Amino acid sequence: MGTAVETAVSELRAMIVNGELPVSDRVTESSAASLLGLSRTPVRAALAQLETEGLLVKLEGRGYKIRPFSLEDLEKASEVRAALEALAAGRLASLGPSQETVAAIESSIAMTEGIVSRSAVTRREVAIYQEANELFHTTIVDACDNDFVRLGLEKIANIPIVAPGAFTEVEGMAQAEMLRITVGHTQHVIIWDAIRAGDAVRAEHMMREHAGAPVRYARLFIGEGYYKKLLSSGIVERGSAGPG
């Protein structure tokens, strides 16, 4: 049963975040079970979990509605992520990284360094950056010796563009994406240098800036193209403030 529930949660979550389920539709146990080809029992548990995660809203009577986010919601979630990851970076700087942590972070930085040395970015490079970015952030969180940081981050991990690795390509914006990747790589290097030097204050401050910036940097580097993509997914509400 656990495997069936995990499958249902994973597949429904991906459909919601990728905009594959219309926000206006009522999601019921029977409709979701039919869509996934599963029985209603694991689907019932999966829908309840996705409600807890904040991706679904329980309706009166039967069923759920996909929760649309405003840009303000995304900014608030980014603020929480920034505070938690800043705490993780500061703690790791104070504790000192293990050899395993050093190997993982330096592998991540080497991956992104290989991208920023290129003259252009392709879908392949975007995918590599996603992998490297997620490795960088999850390694620091896992190594900070505070499980509550990880548990807190799990609550917002599936909100669009907020989680590490949630880098979304925008067609026709390769130059802007390259700039965004370059800035991200540079910040990773600065954060890691502070951690290796045992400078908890600098590590915390730089991580807060870096981890709290997804929406702000999307507006800065990509602007209206990114906003239109978020709107087209159905996850972000129309009428929420666009690029300013």
From TrEMBL:
<dbReference type="InterPro" id="IPR000524">
    <property type="entry name" value="Tscrpt_reg_HTH_GntR"/>
</dbReference>
<dbReference type="InterPro" id="IPR036390">
    <property type="entry name" value="WH_DNA-bd_sf"/>
</dbReference>
<protein>
    <submittedName>
        <fullName>Transcriptional regulator, GntR family</fullName>
    </submittedName>
</protein>
<keyword id="KW-0238">DNA-binding</keyword>
<keyword id="KW-0805">Transcription regulation</keyword>
<feature type="domain" description="HTH gntR-type">
    <location>
        <begin position="2"/>
        <end position="69"/>
    </location>
</feature>
<dbReference type="Pfam" id="PF00392">
    <property type="entry name" value="GntR"/>
</dbReference>
<dbReference type="Pfam" id="PF07729">
    <property type="entry name" value="FCD"/>
</dbReference>
<keyword id="KW-0804">Transcription</keyword>
<dbReference type="InterPro" id="IPR011711">
    <property type="entry name" value="GntR_C"/>
</dbReference>
<dbReference type="GO" id="GO:0003677">
    <property type="term" value="F:DNA binding"/>
</dbReference>
<dbReference type="GO" id="GO:0003700">
    <property type="term" value="F:DNA-binding transcription factor activity"/>
</dbReference>
<dbReference type="InterPro" id="IPR008920">
    <property type="entry name" value="TF_FadR/GntR_C"/>
</dbReference>
<dbReference type="InterPro" id="IPR036388">
    <property type="entry name" value="WH-like_DNA-bd_sf"/>
</dbReference>
